[in-house]
Specification:
Elements lengths: L1 H13 L5 E8 L4 E10 H6 L1 H6 L12 E6 L3 E10 L1 H5 L2 H6 E9 L2 E9 L6 E8 L1 E4 L5 E3 L2 E7 L8 E10 L3 H31 L1
Parallel strand pairs: 1-7
Antiparallel strand pairs: 1-2, 2-4, 3-4, 5-6, 6-11, 7-10, 8-11, 9-10
């Protein structure tokens, strides 16, 4: 009974008609942090207040609770549910198993392979799945890769063709080349400005 209630609640709040959602996963060696953020209009929030708040109740039979955060932005609400799992617990998640037909998960030599097949529970306008880690993510079929962030955008046009797959290498910390290059460029520009400023000062002194 508890499991059935959970599945109904989580599917309802995850993919509420008329709203957009972000589903964030951050993977570390010992944990997977899950965060669901729903952008709702005031009307949607008030209509579904009881259902949303009820998700503070037991997450599953192991008595895991979501942390809930609600931000009132005057015109809309941001409702965020978050929880930190160990790796095995996350892949037994009722939420995950209710939204994908097949789940493949393997950890070998500190490399974790994840393949989620057959997405089947989009009921709202859109869902953005964002997978991130301080460790290198590769072999991803993400729609967008921004640095080490892997992003899948799901809507009514592609929901029947969504599979999510990627590998995390916990032996390799992600090296952000773009950030390093940006920092180097800023330092070079600061040095050039300083040199030009000094030259300008010298010219003024000579004129005097």
């Amino acid at each position: 009974m508890k499991k059935t209630k959970f599945i109904l609640i989580i599917i309802f709040i995850l993919f509420l008609t008329g709203c957009s959602s972000n589903y964030d996963l951050n993977l570390d060696t010992d944990s997977i942090d899950e965060k669901l953020t729903i952008n709702m209009s005031k009307e949607e929030y008030m209509e579904n207040y009881d259902t949303l708040i009820s998700n503070k109740s037991v997450f599953d039979d192991n008595s895991v609770f979501y942390d809930i955060d609600i931000i009132d932005n005057v015109d809309n609400y941001l409702v965020t549910y978050s929880h930190s799992y160990n790796h095995e617990d996350y892949f037994n998640s009722l939420n995950l198993n209710s939204c994908f037909n097949e789940i493949y998960h393997d950890i070998d030599s500190n490399q974790e392979t994840i393949n989620l097949v057959g997405f089947n529970c989009l009921q709202g306008d859109s869902l953005r799945v964002i997978v991130d880690s301080k460790y290198k993510i590769y072999n991803s079929n993400a729609h967008i890769v921004n640095g080490n962030k892997n992003i899948w955008d799901i809507d009514s046009n592609n929901k029947d063709n969504i599979n999510i797959s990627f590998v995390v290498d916990y032996n390799k910390t992600y090296f952000n080349k773009d950030l390093v290059l940006s920092v180097i460029l800023i330092i070079v520009l600061i040095c050039l400005v300083a040199i030009l400023f000094k030259k300008k000062k010298k010219v003024r002194r000579k004129k005097v």
